[in-house]
From TrEMBL:
It comes from Oryza glumipatula. Keywords: Signal. Residues 51-115 form the Rhodanese domain. The lineage of its organism: Eukaryota, Viridiplantae, Streptophyta, Embryophyta, Tracheophyta. Pfam families: Rhodanese. The keyword Nucleus does not apply. Residues 1-22 form the signal peptide. Gene3D superfamilies: Rhodanese-like domain (3.40.250.10). The keyword Signal applies. This is Rhodanese domain-containing protein.
Length: 122
């Protein structure tokens, strides 16, 4: 019997769920930026970083951003953020980029991560 690594098995099991979640692959290519470039763009203050795709994502973004604002969208691996970026572009946002590889690539490239302070228990 061949044993597959747990991560591989989880990925195989998750694939059939993607269409059921209502997220179709983008029909047109989504502009993409690597994590190092994303770090520089966000750090320069000219771009905002978003990390959330939910049922009210477009409405929430529209409340806080103009259609001309520079937005970089990320997630854990870059898959959901690609879908979210495509949704924003389809809604008329003009300067949206997907962060390729997501948070995992960010950490793998040694980029800074702000971790919340843990309060000591009293």
């Amino acid at each position: 019997m061949v044993r597959l690594p747990a991560m591989f098995v989880i990925c195989i099991l998750a694939v059939p769920l993607l269409p059921a979640l209502g997220s179709e692959p983008p029909s047109t290519p989504v502009p993409t930026v690597g994590v190092t470039a994303a770090s520089h763009l966000v750090g320069s203050g000219g771009h905002s970083y978003l990390d959330e795709k939910n049922t009210k994502f477009i409405e929430q973004v529209a409340l806080h951003y103009d259609k001309e604002d520079n937005i970089i969208v990320g997630c854990l691996s870059g898959v959901r953020s690609e879908l979210a970026s495509a949704d924003l572009i389809a809604a008329g946002f003009k300067n949206v980029k997907n962060m390729e590889g997501g948070y995992m690539a960010w950490v793998e490239n040694g980029l800074a991560v702000n971790k919340p302070l843990v309060q000591e228990e009293l």
